[in-house]
UniProtKB/TrEMBL annotation:
It holds the Pfam family DUF4743. Residues 116-257 form the Nudix hydrolase domain. InterPro entries: DUF4743, NUDIX_hydrolase-like_dom_sf, NUDIX_hydrolase_dom. GO terms for molecular function: catalytic activity. This is Nudix hydrolase domain-containing protein.
Length: 289
């Protein structure tokens, strides 16, 4: 019997749940680069040396070069941390771009990406061995999704590295995987989602990769971000996808996309078109100018 796609669509829908009316565009040099929660406008209006705040948009005040814009954003982030509006500075810089591959107009601390609703990027790796998938469990002290199931390797995409370079770095840090192995990973596409978060708006594009590893491969955490690793049959992973709140919220999208690509999801299944379009960002809403 063909299994329904309802659970998959529920995961995708949860990662695309937001109300455009709750946000205003964040602009740099008259172009939108993010979105800021409307209920934060009064707070941000105080920073009138760095921001122009109107009921319909917020704009950065800075000289028109990357260094000046980045410095203005860094100053603003420090003030927001000092006032308790942001928890901390992450000391990892994200590029502020409208599309991947463009020269960034500024660099922004990772910890403020959702606050300003900028488009952020990440890398996610499906690791397969003898037809089974390696899954990690996140450490219980993680700020986001503690103890939830996770891809074996995943991470945000910082400025200055290509996705492949970043993936190799993350493989070494999160799974102690040698570069001779991680370099064999194959890029497979991108997944888009946009969702409301407690920090603001999470507007993310995940670059996905697949890697087949030898049967004797055993991951070891190098950075403490994962506390356990499992190698499970794909049918069991599929069963887990149908259990609520087991995985970190965006991980099911990566696994469902893998299932679709390798033919585990039939195009005859009701909802297949919705699933394929949603993984490509078809539910994103406005602010795509």
């Amino acid at each position: 019997m063909m299994r329904t796609l309802d659970a998959y669509l529920d995961h995708i829908g949860a990662c695309n749940r937001w109300s455009p009316a709750d946000y205003v565009p964040f602009r740099i040099d008259h172009q939108r680069y993010g979105a800021i929660r409307r209920d934060r406008l009064d707070r941000l209006a105080v920073e009138d040396d760095l921001l122009t705040v109107t009921p319909d948009w917020v704009a950065l005040i800075a000289k028109p070069d990357r260094l000046a814009r980045s410095a203005a954003l860094a100053d603003l982030v420090q003030r927001l941390v000092a006032s308790g509006d942001l928890p901390k500075v992450r000391r990892e810089l994200y590029p502020v771009v409208r599309r991947w591959g463009q020269e960034p107009v500024a660099l922004l601390d990772r910890g403020a990406a959702d606050y300003f609703g900028i488009r952020a990027y990440g890398v996610h790796l499906n690791v397969i061995s003898e037809g089974e998938m390696w899954i990690a469990r996140r450490a219980r002290d993680k700020a986001v999704a503690p103890s939830k199931l996770d891809n074996l390797v995943a991470g945000g995409q910082p400025y200055g590295l290509s996705p492949m370079e970043n993936l190799i770095k993350e493989c070494a840090e999160e799974a102690s995987m040698p570069s001779a192995l991680s370099e064999q990973a194959k890029p497979t596409g991108a997944i888009l989602y946009r969702m409301a978060s407690d920090k603001g708006l999470r507007d993310h594009i995940l670059f996905t990769f697949d890697l087949t590893v030898p049967a004797d491969f055993r991951p070891v955490s190098g950075d403490g971000e994962h506390e356990a690793f499992y190698r499970w049959p794909l049918d069991y992973v599929d069963d887990l996808l149908r259990v609520e709140d087991v995985f970190k919220f965006n991980i099911p999208l990566v696994i469902v996309d893998y299932f679709r690509r390798v033919g585990r999801i039939s195009s005859d299944a009701p909802g297949y078109e919705d699933l394929a379009l949603a993984l490509a960002g078809g539910w994103r809403g406005k602010f795509d100018d």
